[in-house]
Design brief:
Elements lengths: L2 H6 L2 H24 L6 H24 L1
Amino acid sequence: MKVSEVREMSVADLRDRIEVEKNNLDTMKLNHAISPLEDTSKIRKTRQDIARMITILAEKEKQQN
């Protein structure tokens, strides 16, 4: 997910999307533990997307206060 796409999202949408991505990450990790994923870089990309969204969420919340 690109930074520009994340910045266009509202605070509520960001919170929802972070929760969805965290659930996806947990599922991918569990699936990878049972049987290896073909593309393990998806785990890393998902982690980076979550971190990016959390950072932008913090910026937006700071601007509101």
